[in-house]
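This week, think about what follows.
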Amino acid sequence: MLSVAEQLNTVISWVPDELRSDPAAAPGPLSGVRIGVKDNIEVGGVLSTCGSEYFADRVAESDAACVGALKRAGGVITSTLNLAEFAVGVTSQNSAAGGAVNPWSPSRVPGGSSGGSGVAVAAGVVDVSLGTDTGGSIRLPAACCGVTGLRPSVGVLDMSGIFPVSADFDTVGPLARSASQLRDAYAVLAGADPAPLRTGPLRISVPWPFVTDDVDPAVRDAVAGVADLLRELGHRVENVPVRHSETAQDVVYTLIYSDLAKIHAERLRDEPSRFQPATRERIRLGLNISDDQVTGARRLRDVFRAGTAELFDEVDVVLTPAMPGDVPQLGGGEAVVAQARRMGQLTYPWSLHDGPTLALPVGVHPSGMPIGAQLTAAKGGEGTLFALAEQFQAHTDWHRRLPPVRVGV
């Protein structure tokens, strides 16, 4: 009989016992915690494939900085986890191992690109996982799999030992069932437990519309329910718009795809057929982006960030849906780029922001799939997000719901 990890195709490599932990580490805050690592994050002595046929035999020489930090805190690195090829894509398909399977329904996407990281936590294969997030790659799997995930502030955590997508947008961050588990992992990665930027009742914006008013009614109702609970808990909830959010996705796309085309230029030129077709299609988008377009996009990025700086002078947190609709069906007939744009429509603006965003489960769609929301704060506001998410999760149990396919069943 197949194990849960095999059924869900979530693990690319099991880490040998002798490489799982730091033998010199004293008991620490993560002692005994089982941790999985997205396979574009290097674990020394273990295959590091990036989910690609190109790297099928590539072995990491040493641990990524984040992996080393987790080991020194007592964490046990059990596995490397499946992902979209080269961390490009929202369905976690790839040319090396095939896609991870959503434990709530095998017919639904697990989200991407850190799909294996979301699946492994949801199914109990690991306690905590590491993912990377460029345009939504932690937040989308968290939403699709019903777990909690953090995209930290840009530039806060050490990215060495991680294969890049776009240096301006790449972040590494944890996924776990609860916000308190995220806090523990993030404190180790950052070197300190972050304090809230502000104590007492928070000023929370629930902007409507945010990017688009084409949001599934069940998703909108779930987020409204979050707002109602936060109001009952004493926070001030209002509608303060996020300026320029409707154009943010195009700005991020321009900058990310320009970087992708440069990173993979040699592979596109010499052996393009080895890419998974959807990956190849998306990376090729960058070939037609001019230097002038990149310059213009950077200018608009700065305008957006100036606007969000003003926004976070008025409010402490912004609450938005993680996705505009239900978790999509695999192979639903939608073109690759169109599906990616739709799924990431609400995550990309917060990738343009330089502060943190935390995704957490907030409801169940009539289809039975999880519904996720995003909490966003000013740069350095991780402590504020943890405190608010912990308070929300103390009064709800969405994060405790278990999928039908999981360890122990």
Q: What stands out?
A: Residues 290 and 361 are 39 Å apart (CA to CA). The chain is about 35% helix and 15% strand. The mean pLDDT is 96. The first helix runs from residue 4 to 8.
